[in-house]
Amino acid sequence: MNLHVDAPDDAADIRLGQFAVASQSSLQERRPRTLKHGDTFGVFDRNGDVLSGEGSPDGLFHRDTRHLSHLDLLINGARPILLSSTLRDDNAVLTCDLTNPDLYDEAGRLLLAHDVVHIRRSKFLWKSTCFERLLVRNFGDRPQRLMLELRFEADFADLFEVRGTRRMRRGTFHPADVGSETVTLTYRGLDGLTRTTRLRFDPEPARLESGRAVFDVEIAPRQRAVIFVEVRCDDGRPQRRPREHYLSSMVEARRALRQSSSRAASIATSNEIFDEAVRRSVSDLYMLVTDTPEGPYPYAGTPWFSAAFGRDALVTAYQTLWMDPALARGVLQFLAANQAKTEDPTADAEPGKVLHEVRYGEMAELGEVPFRRYYGSVDSTPLFIMLAGAYLERTGDTSTLERLWPNIEAALRWIDVYGDRDGDGFVEYGRRTQEGLINQGWKDSHDSVFHADGSMAQGPIALCEVQAYVHAAKRSAARVASVLGMPERAALLETEADQLKQRFDRAFWCDDLGTYALALDGHKRPCRVRSSNAGHALFAGIALPERATLVAETLMDASSFSGWGVRTIASTEARYNPMSYHNGSVWPHDNALIALGLARYGFKREAARIFDGLFHASVYIDLRRLPELFCGFPRRRGQGPTFYPVACAPQAWAAATPLSLVQACLGLTFDPQTRTVRLDRPVLPDFLDEVELRNLAVDGCRLDVAVRRAGGEVATHILGRTGDVRVEVTV
């Protein structure tokens, strides 16, 4: 992400403040409701309204522009009372149940007592449009004459403005085009693009103005009235009336969600609360997936990162590879199509480098932020190669890898030529434009890379986890080369990976800390800081076996493991702050990768402890939805985790975390050549007695399998299979 990079390291960095998310209000306090489809997402309050105001994240957004900045519902001039606000389990529809407050006339006489009229608002997104149905019921014993009013506004703010950036100039707002049942709001940006918001109402309002629609509704006792509202974020003009368009679009939207999620394996367990968390995770994941010409691609998260990010999608696809390889294929093909081919310092682009972020808003188009097509991440490129190798191992899909091989070779060249800036055999980063990100690993806050005394590390910086990813990338590329019939290339890559492993151990190992250094600075001095980054050395397999025990112990020490998860840095370190973005917080996806690493080196019980901590954190969180991060305060009996105020939720790699933790604890791998599903020394965390995995796909075959606790051990049972597929269990 590119959050909280606003504190400059020199005078030229003052403009970096524009990339930060303003922390004037807490998303966790508001608990907004979020919907997404494709390049459109909506952030609503619990009433289903879009409330404007300083620092409000509410709105209907399309391609990084807020197309609706205000929408609220009034009944006889008063705000309805909230009864409940729920998202369907599949995230297809937001339903808000409301009722009337006590309503008085101008003389103060009670006209309508509270709780007589029920209003059910149902909202969903489909193809650049927000659809809404208002179902109004009269539960009284006499007719009611009501005035329902919808007030609306579109500020066409760029997403970075909504995040807190101040702009000196804006484009031109055109007068609203008001018809009998339609209002069109139009803005022409400084980038020359015209953006429109079209609102349609059915039935025709009694009064329709540039900022409000008023309906005079008479409802007999026990009867109802229905109003349809449609907010479209482009200039398309549907042929059907809103009533028919609502119904047909809902059918299409729900069918599309079912089709996308049905290809994935499913999880059912002995713990109903965990099953709720899994259902929400899967629903969030597929809501965030956007269909691109290259295949399905998980956008990073809402509200701030509903866009194509390289690193986030690669990690998410890796976490979910065991259950839905189609996501990995879509991510690989999209990133291959957008791989840098030339040098462009303004975008931190170099040949072979893999994308960091794509934005479509006015500020990106004008270059006011550098993220129109931005390559400033040091880890996306090796992660791309890692995922390609893992995808081949999971699926045996050689035809896709043959098409991707030129992109893999280009990525390898970037690692060796551009990534290794000083020729020492490590991959470093240093931005090529003052507009770019200062830190370009996943911990990209301005203060996330530092020495033991708290002083900032000066670049170019070689991060611990990036070297681990490069090592794994070369191993992965070697396996791909071998399968594709290039044994000499495979042997060379294996040799390079072995050499990097030894070089890494010599440069990064800190015996007195019991872990690997966070990074090397530009003078090759190690940043002697206990951090979660070292867990990625386990994940990617660069850690020497003799180091693994100490690394695991350090990660699970009370200074690092909060009880909810492993902190980004230990509480013993100079810059530790449990409320910071990267210096003491707990990130679910970080912990998922650490758990995979612990399991890789045989520390399954430690992986299960991480699983247990994150599960119990989710119990205290709205919708059982793990957020982007939470604060790193120690776990206390009977209390939940402390929330981070502007954490995104849903977030793709956080949503994928419970799914990845299941794989880590079960030691789940696949061999498509022999059609074998393997479980390596499976363990179950304390809160689970049984896990059932269904629809596991292996080379066209399907398998259902259960893992059950049996005394102090676990036992595996085949529940069903289609085709010649088998199970191997290592105990």
UniProtKB/TrEMBL annotation:
Give residue ranges for domain Putative glycogen debranching enzyme N-terminal.
Answer: 35-229
Gene3D superfamilies listed in its UniProt record? 1.50.10.10
Which InterPro entries is this protein grouped with? 6-hairpin_glycosidase_sf, 6hp_glycosidase-like_sf, GDE_N_bis, MGH1-like_GH
Residues in domain Mannosylglycerate hydrolase MGH1-like glycoside hydrolase?
312-615
Q: What is this protein called?
A: Amylo-alpha-1,6-glucosidase
